[in-house]
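User: Sequence for UspA domain-containing protein below. Tokens please.
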Amino acid sequence: MIKNILIAVDGSENAKGAAQYGFWMAKAFGAGLTGVHVVDIVALEGPLIHDLSGSLGFELFQNFSSEMKKILEENGQSFLDDFKEECEKADLKADIVRAYGIVSSEICEKARLSDLVVMGRAGINAKFEHGLMGSVAEGVVRKSEKPVFIAPKTFKVPTSPLLCYDARSNSSKAMHSAAEFVKATGLPLTVVTVAEGIEGDTLLSEAEHYLEPYGVKAEFKRLTGDDSPSLIENFYKDNGHDLVFMGGSSHGGILKIVLGSTTEHMIRAVEGPFFIER
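Assistant: Structure tokens for UspA domain-containing protein:
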């Protein structure tokens, strides 16, 4: 059950959209909220700053770095204050936290005491990045030990969630999260798997048996073919789904997520929100 939600805050339109999804889920689950903003040490200690130190002289560099830190801190506090104000408008209570470090790593660290991380697909530097998911969001998805909800820029109440199920451990965790989610929100759930014949029927039978005690409205679909990522993408788009539950996969003993080909394909191909289970 989701009772503590961590929302990444950076002042961008993507982060504001993510916050709205976080507010909606907090109300559905009766969950507490924490907004976290990370002052990026890469911005303070990156190659550009060091290049300036050589060009302008060390003393001037020290002053520049100090001023840069002050500006980033002030901006971050402003973002957090705005976040808290939006929470109050939504009649929600929230804590706010400012951290320092590598942004994705600090978000994962602060998520230790949360049940879910909510963040935008891209952050304040989105215009400098390519693809549907920014580098910070990708870093959090790959490193987080907690599930991550990746939100689009524009908030829209989901009406048709899709669970991708293949019986692997994290896929089973995604099914549990999807079951809790649709039970709390009153939404229907579609379960899809890509497998041939008896194998596919067995997977769907497992899912149906698992979901039955939750008393949720669910339907089960088996797809066949060799290109699982494209099959699921097309099914999502053709049937008007607007939220995906998927599992990542762990790589041996390395405590970092490694996105499976289907999960990574879907994140990059579909613009709606994702709930990615570790």
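DSSP finds ten helices and twelve strands in the chain.
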